[in-house]
User: What shape does this take?
Amino acid sequence: MNNSIKNYTQEIMKKDQAHFMHPWTIFDVYKTEGALPIEKAQGNHIEDTDGNKYLDAVGGLWCNNIGTGRREMADAIAEQVMKMSYASPFVDMTNVPATELAAKIAQLAPGDLNRVFFSCGGSTAVDTAFRLIQYYQNCRGKQSKKHIISRDMSYHGTTYAAMSIGGKKGDHPEEFDFIQETIHHITAPKKYGQFDDKTDAEFLDFLLVELEEKIIALGADNVAAFFAEPAMGAGGVIIPPKGYHKKTWQICKKYDVLYVSDEVVTAFGRLGHWFASDDVFDIVPDIIISAKGLTSGYQPLGATIFSDHIWDVISEDGHGRCFAHGFTYSGHPVACAAALKNLEIMEREQLLNNVNELAPYFEEKLNSLRDLPIVGDVRGQGFMWCVEFVANKETFELFPEEMDIGKQISNHADAKGLIVRPIVHLNVMSPPLTLTKADIDFIVDTLRASIDETLIDLKTQGYSYE
Ligand SMILES: Cc1ncc(COP(=O)(O)O)c(C=O)c1O
Assistant: This one.
């Protein structure tokens, strides 16, 4: 590598360390190691400032569905900027891309989910759902319905409400405060390493009883909504036992509790369908939250999609009500134009078919890693997968968290040109929906080689797998 490239990288890293505070940065590590500067992205690949190329098996952050660097997307964005870069969405003004996109989303969404509120990303879409739920329950005279039930290990974003609804332990450090009185977490539907002594049916039953008992304990008249990701993402790609969503949805219906499906990761193709709620899990939630794949990360945008029933209640004639909630950038015309083009590309190139055709191969290839002594579990669906690493397969014993086994492995993968996302004991993948069979081969072969190298490193850390 020539010196000027090296100097440039160092200069960027230094500036970054001095000024750019990153989300989820571990200060000690960041201060000493800095962050890898990424400078270019094309299709399924990204490139750092040293010119190293990587296959991005994380799809940015679960968001790059159509692949990066598309001229058509750039043109659609530029065209909208030149036509009208901004228009206020407040009160009684609208703009054409936002209107068209809301109608398109309603057409794709299940059941009577025909109403769309735009925000700036997933967290603000979750926050909007949280406020919409309060508004709806108050409008219908159910002022006591204030409690929310969600799951351990869930991730719903980073606003105060969204982070309080989320249940990932690592996201609730003592330095932050959370809404505690009205938000309750029940067991995540993760069987591996936690409920291995139960059959699938017993585990499902346990989860359903827990939800119903929680509603009864709080009092159905006090419970407003249940939040669930169809497939838990950041919590570790957790696909619930068969029937879980249908049955939890039925329990919510029984007790007049709104069912909120957080499809920020799963919507727009990740599980091979526009939305996972109905096509994969056979439910029509009251509210679906989406973001990420809606624009494939070309522009920030979130959409809270809700039922005509909720709309009818909150907008009932004669009350003179106003939904006093919104963002300067709700329905941003450039973001909405990007989303419309993104959806058009997905339809034209039949990217959902690509997921459905390649997912079985992806699954089979990833499962071939199970012969490695520290690969405990391989799980996922569609284009959303993870490998869970354990110190001992028989006892499910994990490596100590401070060893950061996921990161040890992903560091080796980085060096071989593959980006996977390390989350403590896991390597997580959510690649672009444009992934090819050859890309899958590269991902799995590189992961195997990276795990093999880690096994050698582990010897010096007191773990031996002869
Ligand atoms: C399920 C889920 N909900 C909400 C969010 C928050 O989205 P954003 O980061 O766009 O605010 C995320 C982000 O990863 C997510 O995975």
Observations:
- The first helix runs from residue 3 to 19.
